[in-house]
Design goal:
Largest sheet: 5 strands, antiparallel
Distance between the termini: 93 Å
Number of helices: 11
Structural class: alpha+beta
Helix content: 40-55%
Mean pLDDT: 80
CATH topology of the largest domain: Heat Shock Protein 90
CATH class of the largest domain: Alpha Beta
Shape: elongated
CATH superfamily of the largest domain: Histidine kinase-like ATPase, C-terminal domain
Strand order of the largest sheet: 2-1-5-4-3
Order of helices and strands: HHEEHHEEEHHEHEEHEEHHHEE
Number of strands: 12
Length: about 375
């Protein structure tokens, strides 16, 4: 290499070393600034929080954020910050007050939309603390409660209105004993329907509270089926339905016997109500692979495929006219679903129109089962 070449190479090497030193110095300076803004102890505290927490800088980036903030999609470890959080921080600095609001965040590969509640507190002119929580489930629960309240009000209006009208008819027909007796029969029927509706509303509210199965006990499933069938025997005889039990094993589950009887009884009552005279309803139990299954099979009108996904919704009826005739409230199957969930189980349905339906409650078996 010529002397000139050596000189050029030396200059290039020197410039490279100088640039590298400047970069390292800048990185070190940024790290020192970051550590100064958010001390180590503060980082430890923020990292331990269950809620998403972000220390926001005026340049719309995060000085530090915990893992929960990353999971919520409002900040990244590299400092990138969700625009909604940065906007709230700027508003907090501008007003000097705490600002809170729900923002929409898309999370995951599929970009699922979630509602995240963010509360931003200005610390000083350089930093603000943003605390975030996922409110998606809470919003859904609130919407469900509102819908439930509306449905309850609507369902209660029917029997109450009928009772009011019948009372007026009785008053008008006070001089006609036969008409009074007819109206009295109808009033008793509406009163029974109203009582049943109120009882089931109370029951499903208790079930949804998650406090139904507090003390588990060993429950003989065969005994549950026999008790539920005996309770429905009179209704089956009145409709000329043959009620059959198929109990060849006696498995045991852990749970609340009264709730399980109620769930099976609801399935049997539904099978009777939606079967024509002369049909058969069968209740059976099987045990396999640590699972216990209670099935109620009918030869009734069946359920359309389009309705099968909705039948466990509260107040949903596949045949409203028949439900009014039989006194159905539309809550029975929803109660069955929640009883199964309370026992770590599930309920499924197979049905075909004009053939019949089979509802199956599957529960985890107890190791003492036979």
């Amino acid at each position: 290499m010529t002397p000139l070449g050596w000189v050029v190479a030396a200059l290039a090497f020197g410039i490279g070393m100088l640039a590298g030193a400047l970069v390292l110095r800048r990185s070190a300076k940024q790290e020192v600034v970051a550590r100064t803004l958010v001390p180590h102890r503060t980082r430890q505290v923020i990292a331990a929080l269950q809620s998403g927490a972000v220390i926001v800088r005026p340049d719309r980036r995060a000085a530090f954020s915990n893992h929960s903030a990353s999971s919520l999609g409002i900040a990244r470890p590299d400092g990138a910050l969700h625009a909604g959080v940065a906007d709230l921080a700027e508003r907090a600095w501008r007003t000097g007050e705490v600002v809170e609001e729900e923002i929409e965040v898309r999370r995951g590969v599929l970009g699922a939309l979630t509602q995240v509640h963010v509360r931003v507190t200005p610390i000083d002119t350089e930093l603000a603390l943003a605390v975030a929580n996922d409110n998606t489930e809470q919003r859904a629960a609130e919407a469900t409660r509102r819908e439930f309240a509306v449905n309850v009000s609507h369902e209660l209006k029917t029997p109450i209105g009928a009772l009011s009208l019948l009372a007026e008819n009785v008053e008008d027909a006070s001089d006609e004993p036969e008409l009074v007796r007819q109206f009295a029969v109808k009033m008793r029927r509406e009163a029974r329907r109203l009582t049943k509706l109120i009882q089931e509303i109370i029951e499903i509210s208790r079930l949804q509270g998650g406090e139904s199965v507090l003390d588990h006990e060993e429950v003989d499933v065969a005994g549950v089926i026999h008790e539920a069938c005996e309770g429905a025997r009179l209704a089956a005889e009145n409709r000329r339905i043959e009620l059959v039990t198929d109990v060849r094993v006696r498995p045991v589950v852990l749970g609340d016997r009264d709730l399980l009887v109620m769930a099976v009884r609801n399935l049997i009552d539904n099978a009777i109500a939606y079967s024509d005279p002369g049909a058969r309803v069968t209740a059976s139990v099987t045990a396999k692979d640590d699972a216990v299954s209670v099935a109620v099979l009918d030869q009734g009108i069946g359920i359309d495929a389009s309705d099968q996904e909705r039948i466990f919704e509260r107040f949903f009826r596949t045949d409203p006219a028949r439900a009014r005739e039989t006194g159905g409230t539309g809550l029975g199957l929803s109660i069955v679903k929640h009883v199964a969930l309370q026992h770590s189980g599930a309920v499924t349905v197979w049905s075909q129109p004009a053939v019949g339906s089979t509802f199956t409650i599957t529960l985890p078996g107890y190791e003492g089962s036979q």
